[in-house]
TrEMBL record:
Phylogenetic classification of the source organism: Bacteria, Bacillati, Actinomycetota, Coriobacteriia, Coriobacteriales
The protein's name: DUF2798 domain-containing protein
Natural source organism: Collinsella tanakaei YIT 12063
A Pfam family annotated for this UniProt entry: DUF2798
Keyword vocabulary terms for this entry: Membrane, Transmembrane, Transmembrane helix
Transmembrane annotation, as ranges: 9-29, 49-71, 83-107, 119-142
Keyword Phosphoprotein: no
Length: 161
């Protein structure tokens, strides 16, 4: 886990990249009905805007909520194991990010199709399908890979506070 604010920001850049890219591909494939190269290309084209939005949502909304909940109800810094703290915060991050990014996706689809009245229905119906993918992807793939890449690029003590 990152040990200071600067490390947290760098780690968030890496983790957000892994989550937003995969979830974009997943959602475009769901919308098109199949995972094709066209779906990957469309997801890649929409990725920059989604990435910037997700970074802002993550840093300013999801992180404070997730850490606040995890450290108040699930784990105690200094007493809980690093693995327990990582799993608690990572799991708690998924909930607000899925809610926020599902709304982002619904607005994005509505802006392309012109069906703005359908935004609430799309948003609510996207939350469960996104949660089903985001939680395991975060805990089993994106999180471990991001932590590995982060610590390989920035060994402990190399990023100053």
């Amino acid at each position: 886990m990152p040990t200071n604010k600067r490390e947290s920001l760098i780690f968030t850049f890496i983790m957000c990249f892994a989550m937003v890219l995969w979830m974009s591909i997943y959602n475009v494939a769901l919308h098109q009905g199949a995972l094709t190269m066209g779906a990957v290309a469309q997801a890649w084209l929409g990725f920059p805007v989604a990435y910037v939005f997700a970074m802002c949502a993550d840093w300013f909304v999801a992180v404070p909520l997730a850490k606040g909940f995890a450290f108040r109800f699930l784990v105690t810094p200094g007493k809980s194991s690093p693995l327990a703290m990582t799993l608690a915060v990572s799991s708690c991050m998924v909930v607000p990010m899925v809610i926020i990014m599902s709304l982002f996706g619904a607005v994005e689809v509505a802006s392309q199709t012109g069906e703005f009245a359908a935004i609430p229905f799309m948003w609510i119906s996207n939350i469960p399908t996104n949660f089903i993918m985001a939680l395991p992807w975060n805990l089993l793939v994106a999180g471990p890979v991001s932590r590995f890449v982060f610590r390989r690029a920035f060994p402990v003590g190399t990023v100053l506070a």
